[in-house]
Write a structure and sequence with these properties.
N-(1-d-carboxylethyl)-l-norvaline Dehydrogenase, domain 2; single chain; Rossmann fold
Length: 325
């Protein structure tokens, strides 16, 4: 099986190492230092209590340089997807499976979703409204990643905790390509769950990320301090309550409270979220995937999400200030 990993960040590298060890023909699309490092020594992985391992893979800067791929795993941040979709669309066939290992609300989130508004295009995520033409929803496999990882050095990922992947189709169906993808990931050593309602799994993970990530970036602090501050914790709960209400209108029921969910987060200690790491490193922030899409869905449903709007506006200003002008 030919599998292309688009993106040589931590998650993409973990997929590349493990799938290559299963015998799949792995190619990685990478740039700059990552390209050079992978070309010289392959992709590497550090795991708890395990020596660093490397796997040999092909590396390229474009999908056009590779043979036809059976599967493409896209592991990038949301702001990059529009350009990537344009580049890869000419090189995928009707049978190519497209696994999206990305955070937050995807552009196809409202597709095949009971309770969705008539207008399913999320312009914050798909400004030109053409992503479905470039990457058809019928070929999408959504992936919810429950792993804590980072890039140790170019071409090498470090997995700190977690090993779970949830895979599912937008249309609440479990078909043979989805089952084959899940089986392959299990062989690669991941804990895999196949979901018949992937939008619910996406929304539940987002329920925590949409507060902890942006607030940590705005305040430059860790999740324990956010939740230990009574005023900020209440703001977090207000946002989560709004998101829970929005989900319920879409048929996505969450059967726990914000306070109960936050207790679990607090047990994880002083976490430095991915957005906090991005702001410190001067990288582009995933504002629309975590907040913009939710805010737009609320508008489409006629729901007044005041607290979400406040956090979205503040984080959007932060992201704009992060960009070179």
């Amino acid at each position: 099986m030919n599998i292309c990993i688009y993106g040589a960040g931590a998650i993409g590298t973990i997929f590349a190492v493990r799938l290559a060890q299963c015998g799949a023909n792995i190619s990685v699309i990478a740039r700059n230092d990552s390209f050079q490092a992978i070309a010289e020594k392959g992709v590497g992985l550090d795991q708890p209590d395990t020596p660093r391992i490397f796997a040999e893979v092909a590396v390229a800067t474009s999908l056009a340089d590779l043979p036809e791929q059976d599967m493409i795993i896209i592991a990038v941040k949301q702001p990059a997807i529009a350009e990537i979709a344009r580049l890869i669309a000419p090189h995928i066939s009707a049978s190519t499976q497209i696994v999206l290992a990305m955070n937050g609300v995807p552009w196809w989130f409202l597709d095949n979703l009971e309770g969705a508004p008539d207008d399913t295009i999320l312009r914050t995520l798909d400004p030109d409204g053409n992503l479905r033409q470039l990457l058809p929803t019928s070929q999408i496999i959504g992936a919810v990643i429950h792993m804590s990882s980072f890039v140790a050095e170019p071409g090498v990922a470090c997995l700190r905790a977690g090993n779970k992947i949830i895979l599912g189709r937008p249309g609440r169906k479990i078909d043979m390509p989805l089952e084959a993808c899940a089986s392959l990931c299990k062989q690669a050593g991941f804990e895999v769950e196949t979901s018949a309602f992937i939008q619910k799994d996406i929304w539940f993970k987002l329920w925590g990320n949409m507060t902890m990530n942006p607030i940590s970036a705005l305040t430059r602090t860790t999740t324990d301090r956010i939740l230990d501050d009574k005023l900020v914790h209440q703001f977090v709960c207000d946002i989560m309550t709004e998101a829970k209400d929005i989900g319920a209108q879409l048929g996505i029921e969450i059967d726990t409270t914000p306070q109960e969910r936050n207790k679990l987060t607090r047990k994880l200690g002083a976490m430095r979220t991915s957005m906090l790491q991005d702001i410190e490193a001067g990288r582009t922030l995933e504002v629309d995937a975590l907040l913009g899409g939710v805010s737009e869905i609320a508008d489409k449903l006629g729901y007044q999400a005041h607290h979400i709007s406040i956090l979205y506006g503040l984080t959007r200003l932060l992201a704009d200030a992060q960009q070179p002008h």
